[in-house]
Design brief:
The structure is a single chain. With 286 residues, the chain is an alpha/beta fold. The protein has 2 domains: 4-174, NAD(P)-binding Rossmann-like Domain (Rossmann fold, 3-Layer(aba) Sandwich), CATH 3.40.50; 179-284, 6-phosphogluconate dehydrogenase C-terminal like domain (6-phosphogluconate dehydrogenase C-terminal fold). 48% of the residues lie in helices and 13% in strands. Strands 3-2-1-4-5-6-7-8 form an 8-stranded mixed beta sheet, sandwiched between helices. Helix 2 links the parallel strand 2 and strand 3 (51-54). Helix 3 (72-83) runs parallel beside helix 4 (102-109) and helix 6 packs across helix 10 (242-265).
């Protein structure tokens, strides 16, 4: 479908795309554009990519699919650079993997070549980062949300959907603003809660040191695992989707305050049992 593919940023997501393409015997050329090409020796030696070029020296001529795999605001800058590049072919497509869609879609729509960009968000991230964390099956059975805009042709959307399906993904379409409002609660809020839980034990960590781990069960480790994610990436996400995240956080605070009120009003377990019952039933449904 795409004979020459270029990936901007060969971290977890970009590296996994390249590994996935090789695992399905993609016969075309795979090029990596990187800030520091010297760090991608393993990808070259493992034949995961065919060439690595610095982002500053990127040439787009003859590339069929360009994939932006960088933090949100850098992705917007890159998209504008790519769409304004005379080397971008008339039928070439540009996609991204960002966790916030409205800002980059709006940036695309401000460009005369907006039709070349199709927004995408693979729900396949991890707290691990970098090329070393990438794997060939990251997208297998993972949802990928495509957020088309008014200037996209249906044929191009289908080409992008076919690309993700070739990597094993399950493709869903959604409008960008709807996507952002939902993932604020299903992806971004959980990160806020995980980091807040870590901050809540900050004092204990300082006073108890390594001994604190003896008081941690699997539940705490499970809940806080994602707090180990990239601060740079998450700072961009929270800035780009701030209004939706703030609304989700306020709703959560109200829920917690209600539980606190019940606890303080009466020590009877029955007063808060319905809170746990409702949560358990909701969790069973996903």
């Amino acid at each position: 479908m795409f004979s020459r593919i270029a990936v901007f940023g060969l971290g977890l997501l970009g590296g996994s795309i390249c590994r996935g393409l090789r695992s399905i015997s993609h016969q075309g050329e795979i090029i990596a554009f990187a800030r520091d090409p010297g760090k991608l020796g393993d990808a070259l030696r493992g034949r995961v990519i065919d060439r690595v070029i610095s982002m500053e020296a990127a040439r787009l001529d003859g590339i069929d699919l360009l994939i932006i795999c960088t933090p949100v605001f850098h992705s917007i800058e890159l998209l504008n650079t790519i769409l304004n590049d005379s080397g971008l072919g008339a039928t070439s497509l540009v996609i991204d993997v960002g966790s916030v869609k409205s800002p980059i879609v709006e940036a695309a729509l401000a460009n005369p070549r907006a039709d070349r960009f199709v927004g995408c968000h693979p729900m396949a991230g991890s707290e691990r980062t970098g090329y070393g964390a990438s794997r060939h099956d990251l997208y297998n059975q993972a949802p990928v949300i495509i957020t088309p805009h008014a200037r996209n042709a249906r044929g191009d959307i289908e080409k992008v959907a076919g690309f993700w399906r070739s990597l094993g993904a399950v493709v869903v379409e959604a409008e960008a603003s709807f996507h952002d409002s939902v993932v604020a609660r299903t992806s971004h809020l959980p990160h806020l809660l995980a980091c807040s839980a870590m901050h809540a034990i900050g004092g204990l960590a300082e006073s108890m040191g390594p001994g604190l781990t003896n008081f941690m069960g699997n539940g705490f480790r499970d809940v806080t695992r994602i707090a180990a994610g990239s601060p740079e990436m998450w700072a961009d996400i929270f800035a780009a989707n701030g209004t939706n995240i703030a609304a989700a956080a306020r709703d959560t605070i109200k829920i917690i305050e209600d539980v606190i009120a019940r606890i303080e009003a009466n020590g009877d377990p029955r007063m808060i049992a319905d809170f746990f019952d409702r949560a358990r039933e909701l969790r069973k449904g996903i």
